[in-house]
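Request: Not sure, any thoughts?
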Amino acid sequence: MFTKLSSLFLLFAMVAAPVKGQELGCFPPVRPFVPSDPRDVEAYSDLIRQDFETYIVDFEAYLRCLDTERARVFVEGQEVIREYGAFQEIVEKLRPR
């Protein structure tokens, strides 16, 4: 049962990641594998080519995600700094003189 459950979870993660992955955070693309044996390269050239093309598309999406996340975190950081300033003012007013 553990094996079936683990396999099901892994399958779900692999299927859901491309669809929902960017909503959960930025995930780097999986680097394409190129076999060292030229016969394997020849035999699987279509699959390898597709892996490279997928990597390039995923790489571009990853960079866009990082840019979006950086912008979001920058705005959030500014808000937190303002909130910290307001907190400091409240603490200062509550401090006995």
Q: What stands out?
A: Helices lie at 2-24, 38-43, 45-94. Residues 5-12, 15-22 have pLDDT under 50 and may be disordered. The first helix runs from residue 2 to 24. The chain has three helices and no strands.
